């Protein structure tokens, strides 16, 4: 229990006087807020609060600061490395009421949303204006959570990640002060890049309450395709050559045969159970055609079959829904199982080597782990299908994960391309960053001296 | 004199034993390192040192830390806001010997260079491999300096700024520790984004000694054009509509009539002395043609004349050399004068308003100030032609600059798009960032507690 017993009632009184009935100590509410979509062990927070404004978040954090209580922001709870699990207890700040699109500046191709607006909600909101927001992790995550995790997804190869697409943030600091990290200009050389500092800080430096994002015009033409390969090498080489040639491809996703089997079964599809690429091209009609011809030629030289095209919106949506549902498809491979999802990212020249060595590890293991990835970024995932109560399965997943991560780091890659460090990747941070971790720690201490903001995530103090 | 007199000889002895003859107290060497290309007053450093390695930089900084002496990194000295002026004295670290391209990973489209490699030097080095690096401030600046300033240039509208194009940095911290901020993977969610923290920190948090950069394949087709307009509004509206339509234009530069007069005279050209756009298109042959047709149609509807094309490399180079030489062209307008260059950046929807109000200010002033800008980013510059000894000219430039900057900030823009804060924009930082400046200050204090890294720049402690 992180709420100091002596002051417990005082704290609850203060929260209630601020938020009325938007304070909960109900065990089932607390349990709902004690977990994410990862394999990490849940932990019940002491209190869950539901603010409506940045100012209320600020007052909540001031109370947490006064009594030195952990405070953890919560969006959709879809993190994959335990990032939002309140493993030291404390107060979870569920931002569910902060779900308004505040402004769309169509002329400037940007918008400002409250943190709990989800990516799909935003896209529905702006579609009529001919605009879209491309970043799409598997889950329909909140944009605040996506910023905090430095998330990306299938479109990152063309449109970048949250790192490139957040223009500014409103953040509540550890002492309750509210800052705006930047203005709406597309570029600036005015002082330290606080926007990028908070993007990817996983709630450890402050709570993001508003996000200003870049938007894009919906392309004149979009076409998606599926291509099966006779070999995994052929699929990977197609990705590598496409990127090296500078084709502005919008999506180029790799699914291995195991993943395709799972996807077919879960999403009721009948693609060949082979190593496969899901592709998408954006541009003018002529541009899309030109890109598609280039990539088809590359694929043909690398054991790729015919492209199966999806150009109608409903067909494209079905294809990408199947791609986004891979975690659920993987889970369905084994009733009652969970998925330990991991992700690494390497320079593209090392991608084939990294994936093939990993597949060799898997071939020698008793665990099943479909492979899927944003291969155009050099980023891929394994989903270990485990039963949490089977100690030897957890151990084996850990062993395989360790080998995968250390392999990626040895190839000048990173221990996580998009899931964040959370709890699950903490032990790899020093292997990746060395002395630079001490700089991160100094920043954490400077901005959160009482260590109340999502404490014990990314690194220990 | 920032060198503490009592220890002066000790410090020089330590430096000499480290660097042998690569330590200078020669007055003319010190004078060369006491200024940049701005109007700000020079200040002679106490010592200039010339390290050859990151380790030597580290040892130099350790000496500076021990004796609490200001230490300022120096590349090409081409900053425009006094960023490298050692205005508190101290030791200037000239990185001239750190000018090697260390690695080119053509397959990964990246490279690692020592900090003093200049942008032109890099481009010459990689051209044979079909690669280029797009970021191009006017000067042939060092890539370390460009990273430290968060520089951009004419290609940023398509390729981004240093913010988007630096993959990793090697940095010497204020106590001499050496860190690598990131690995070579294209994306990562592993911990705080230290790369982006040091990009734009202007040497106040550490000295950048190596830079890993994204590279791009030289496009299959490139075509540049010049288009004159009957009105400034027409030129600006062409820019705005081009951006809003999502045309992936590589360059779209605005030069007002005053600037065109200066450019014609300096670069021996004969363009009409009218408000003008310099444009460039990159892509496949068909893609370039498609983009060009779209923008020609937009221009024609906005009082634009015929496009004068430059497709041969030598013609394109001549055109862009003229563009890059605008500062020298502006200086040549008035013998013996200097240029007070300023830059702001606003959301594109406010660009016309911002520029037209600024032109009205200029029309009412006795100062001449050509206007030129990376209009596609909402970023533009004025170059006040002044004589430093004329107090009333400095005052008038300051008045006009204040009005320009506060106007840009009021439009949700920034006080500098690409020149940095240095000394010149310090007074605007709080107007732009408010409470967020205190967060920057906390970070500075945490990483440089003795305030020795380029002290007194960006903000005071």
Can I get a quick summary?
With 461 residues, the first copy, chain A, is α+β, with helices and mostly antiparallel strands.
Our Rg estimate of chain A from Cα atoms comes to: 22 Å
Helix count of chain A equals: 17
Strand content of chain A: 15-25%
Mean pLDDT of chain A: 96
> Span from first to last CA of chain A?
20 Å
Question: Main sheet of chain A?
Answer: 7 strands, antiparallel
**Looking at CATH, which topology of the largest domain in chain A would you report?**
Uridine Diphospho-n-acetylenolpyruvylglucosamine Reductase, domain 3
Describe this structure in words.
The structure is a homodimer of 461-residue chains. Chain A is an alpha+beta fold. Chain A folds into 4 domains: 5-94, 2-Layer Sandwich (Uridine Diphospho-n-acetylenolpyruvylglucosamine Reductase, domain 2); 101-217, 2-Layer Sandwich (Uridine Diphospho-n-acetylenolpyruvylglucosamine Reductase, domain 3), CATH 3.30.465; 221-327, Alpha-Beta Plaits; 334-430, Alpha-Beta Plaits. Chain A is built from 17 helices and 18 strands. In chain A, strands 15-12-14-13-17-18-16 form a 7-stranded antiparallel sheet, with helices on both faces. In chain A, a hairpin with a 4-residue loop joins strand 5 and strand 6. In chain A, helix 14 packs antiparallel against helix 15 (391-410). Chains A and B meet through strand 9, helix 8, strand 11, helix 9 and helix 11 of A and strand 9, helix 8, strand 11, helix 9 and helix 11 of B.
């Amino acid at each position: 229990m992180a709420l100091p017993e002596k002051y417990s009632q005082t704290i609850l009184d203060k929260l209630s006087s601020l938020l009325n009935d938007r304070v909960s100590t109900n065990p089932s509410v607390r349990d709902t807020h004690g977990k994410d979509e990862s394999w990490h062990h849940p932990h019940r927070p002491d209190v869950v609060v539901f603010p409506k404004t940045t100012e209320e978040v600020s007052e909540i954090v001031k109370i947490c600061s006064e009594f030195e209580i952990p405070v953890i922001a919560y969006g959709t709870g879809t993190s994959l490395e335990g990032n939002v699990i309140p493993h030291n207890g404390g107060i979870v700040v569920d931002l569910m009421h902060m779900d308004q699109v505040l402004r769309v500046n169509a002329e400037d191709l940007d918008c400002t949303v409250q943190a709990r607006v989800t990516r799909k909600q935003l896209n529905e909101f702006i579609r009529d204006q001919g605009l879209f927001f491309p970043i799409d992790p598997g889950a329909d995550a909140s944009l605040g959570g996506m910023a905090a995790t430095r998330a990306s997804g299938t479109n990152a190869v063309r449109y970048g990640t949250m790192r490139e697409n957040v223009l500014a943030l409103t953040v509540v600091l550890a002492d309750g002060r509210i800052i705006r990290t930047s203005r709406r200009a597309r570029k600036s050389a005015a002082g330290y890049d606080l926007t990028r500092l908070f993007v990817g800080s996983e709630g450890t430096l402050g709570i993001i309450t508003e996000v200003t994002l870049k938007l894009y015009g919906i392309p004149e033409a979009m076409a998606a395709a599926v291509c099966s390969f006779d070999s995994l090498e052929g699929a990977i080489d197609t990705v590598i050559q496409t990127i090296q040639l500078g084709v502005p491809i919008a999506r180029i996703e790799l699914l291995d045969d195991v993943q395709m089997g799972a996807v077919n079964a879960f999403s009721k599809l009948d693609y060949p159970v082979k190593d496969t690429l899901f592709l998408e091209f954006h541009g003018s009609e002529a541009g899309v055609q030109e890109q598609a011809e280039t990539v088809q030629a590359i694929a043909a030289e690398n054991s790729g079959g015919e492209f199966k095209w999806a150009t109608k919106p409903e067909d494209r949506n079905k294809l990408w829904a199947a791609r986004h549902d891979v975690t659920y498809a993987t889970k369905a491979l084994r009733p009652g199982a969970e998925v330990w999802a991991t992700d690494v990212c390497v320079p593209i020249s090392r991608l084939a080597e990294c994936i093939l060595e990993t597949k060799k590890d898997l071939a020698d293991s008793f665990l099943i782990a479909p492979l899927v990835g944003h291969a155009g970024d050099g980023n891929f995932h394994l989903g270990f299908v485990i039963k949490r109560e089977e100690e030897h399965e957890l151990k084996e997943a850990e062993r395989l994960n360790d080998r995968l991560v250390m392999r990626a780091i040895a190839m000048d890659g990173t221990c996580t391309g998009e899931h964040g460090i959370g709890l699950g990747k903490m032990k790899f941070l020093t292997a990746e960053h060395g002395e630079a971790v001490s700089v991160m720690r100094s920043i954490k201490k400077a901005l959160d001296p009482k260590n109340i903001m999502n404490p014990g995530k990314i690194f220990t103090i």
